[in-house]
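Tip: read the tokens left to right.
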């Protein structure tokens, strides 16, 4: 039997990083629904992120997106975060919202536009120097919509050149995290469409270049835990952008569409030692709460990550190993299903009580009055969003 205390000891060290943009308005091309009480600036976004950490105890950092979170002085924002008991995390670059990037950013045929995009990436490294962030996350919307529109190999040359230039600008304790995506906004080729392309570029760049697995960025039916196991074995899994989807890049709450898939992913992380206190993996959420309240949506998402992790840690590895060696297919599968079918909510409630937290974070937040307070206080001004 797996020792519940040992599982709790690992869960106590878990860290889930929140996306600042999840607290702003978001939507689809059809509509971005505004919600009352939404932050108007990065300071209000980190205040909301701090609420999630306050009630879950495992969300001590918030990722920023530049320029959505542009401020005059990032050291002031970092100090404000510290006062709220959290810290600023991954810096996300944005070379996907400028008219100049219609045909690409660092892969654009026009060298003037490539250097403009590169300058933004350098600016993001400067922000990291001010916030003390370790990771620069790069997702490129770059791609083409029609066969023949551009030379696929030439774009890879430009991509490699741009990535090399950014990599050389990083400090020795800083990392480049390259995120891939199968499609959207480009619909014929994306220049970083899959894990293999990101992996190959990261291998070429060096030790401090790692792959980001966004769970919404694969073709339907993709076995994401295989990708995770492969990247872990190669020491190239740098980060997750957790969310879930029924169809495309739906950015729904992690674990809401397919909790069994999340469990299978966390099982590969657990068996590769990825939940060690000094883990190199950044466990981030990348979600949009288009119609649901955003802070409770983030709290629920963090709890879904905790539940999947707890179930993964409950797998009896000794019994599993014996069954696998014996070729006992059903026996081995049953070991995993037993863990997955275990109700871990009492264990997590105990853990929270032991951490001095309310065992029910959703109820505790609802009872805090914070939601009503921000609706009353945040009147006027420009609500935060993607600015798309
Ligand atoms: C692209 C993406 C990327 C972010 C953006 C908010 O789909 O997953 O990680 O920059 O969403
Ligand atoms: Mn993402």
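Filled-in amino acids:
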């Amino acid at each position: 039997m797996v020792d519940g205390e040992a599982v709790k000891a690992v869960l106590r060290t878990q860290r889930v990083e929140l996306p600042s943009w999840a607290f702003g308005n978001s939507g689809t091309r059809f509509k971005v629904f505004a919600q009352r009480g939404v932050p108007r600036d990065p300071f209000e976004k980190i205040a909301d992120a701090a609420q999630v950490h306050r009630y879950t105890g495992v969300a001590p950092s918030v990722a920023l997106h530049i320029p959505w979170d542009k401020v005059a002085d990032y050291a002031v924002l970092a100090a404000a975060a510290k006062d709220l008991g959290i810290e600023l995390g991954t810096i996300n670059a944005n070379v996907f919202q400028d008219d100049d990037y219609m045909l690409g950013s660092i892969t654009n045929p026009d060298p003037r536009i490539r250097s403009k995009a590169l300058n933004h990436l350098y600016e993001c490294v400067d922000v990291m120097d001010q916030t003390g962030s370790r990771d620069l996350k790069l997702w490129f919307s770059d791609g083409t919509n029609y066969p023949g529109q551009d030379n696929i190999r030439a774009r890879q040359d430009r991509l490699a050149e741009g990535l090399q230039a950014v990599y050389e600008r990083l400090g020795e304790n800083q990392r480049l995290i390259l995120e891939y995506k199968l499609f959207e906004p480009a619909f014929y080729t994306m220049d970083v469409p899959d894990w293999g392309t990101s992996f190959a570029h990261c291998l070429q760049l060096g030790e401090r270049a790692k792959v980001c697995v966004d769970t919404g960025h694969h073709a339907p039916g993709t076995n994401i835990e295989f990708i995770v196991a492969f990247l872990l074995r190669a020491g190239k899994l740098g980060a997750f952008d957790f969310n879930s989807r029924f169809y495309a890049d739906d950015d729904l709450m992690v674990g809401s569409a397919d909790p069994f898939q999340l469990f299978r992913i966390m099982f590969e992380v657990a068996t590769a030692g990825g939940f060690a206190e000094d883990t190199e993996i950044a466990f981030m959420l990348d979600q949009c709460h288009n119609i649901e309240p955003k802070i409770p949506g983030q709290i629920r998402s963090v709890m879904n990550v905790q539940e999947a992790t707890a179930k993964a840690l409950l797998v009896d590895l000794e019994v599993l190993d014996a069954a696998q060696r014996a070729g006992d297919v059903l026996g081995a599968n049953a070991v995993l299903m037993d863990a997955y079918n275990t109700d871990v909510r009492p264990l997590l409630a105990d853990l929270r009580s032991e951490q001095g937290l309310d065992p029910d974070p959703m109820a505790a937040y609802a009872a805090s009055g914070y939601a009503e307070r921000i609706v009353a206080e945040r009147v006027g001004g420009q609500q935060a969003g993607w600015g798309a």
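The first helix runs from residue 4 to 12. The chain has a mean pLDDT of 97.
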